[in-house]
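Local shape tokens:
==================
===
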Amino acid sequence: MRSPLSEYLVICDMDNTLLTAKEGLPPCNRTVIRLFTELGGRFTVATGRPPASIRAAMQGIELSAPAISCNGALLYDLSRGTVLYRATLDRAQAAAAIADILPKFPRLGVEVMAGNGEMYVLQANEYTHAHQVDEQLGSIACPIECVPDGWVKVVFAADPETIRKLGQYAKTRYYGRDNYFLPTNSIYLEIMPVGVSKATGMHTLCDLMGLPTKQTIVIGDYYNDLELMRQAGYAVAVANAPAEVKASADTVTTCTCTEGAVGEYLYQLIRSKTDL
């Protein structure tokens, strides 16, 4: 008999929703995700992380649908190691932005993710180092001309005040119409391909799976999750989310990320749809 949970696809943000880079995946989340998928539920992630970092962070938990990776620029089937969809930046426009920005913000860290999310570090700082260590990312340090084609995003990394000022500066500049700036964390500002986001990744994934978006449940914590949450069938915010994110959700968890917010919601969903 078909499980009542199988009609749902749960799409979960990773950092500060499902797990934290420092503390990893809460045991509660690990246990309940496995129970949810064993009972027929479908679970995947939507994240800025590349596929290799997703695999390392999930610590052996198998996703039951392809991952929305690099903020929607890659759809990646971790079980098969295959790219199902890739969107790329206009390299010339992104390079022009980097060339303009770096002299004005000389202490920025700059990373380019290309191909399947491989990381190329154009300029290192303590934030790019922490990014690599915390997310278990390999990297290649090289000048911009040595980065291969197929850029999926650029990441600027610095302290929150510098990133705030950079965001304000970027709004005053024009580098072309094919890329846009996306704040993804207080310490990161990214360049993404226009028309690409976690939300577009969800729509592409649903099309590939033949699943109506009304059967999606999104769990998130930050402003870059808002579009995804608003376009999903049902939206959940974790307790540590900002007020604007909570206001856009259909429900808010009692637990924070580190307390097991995702496990809390999934167990409530299991209880509501099964006899457990």
The CA atoms of residues 88 and 152 lie 5 Å apart. The chain has a mean pLDDT of 95.
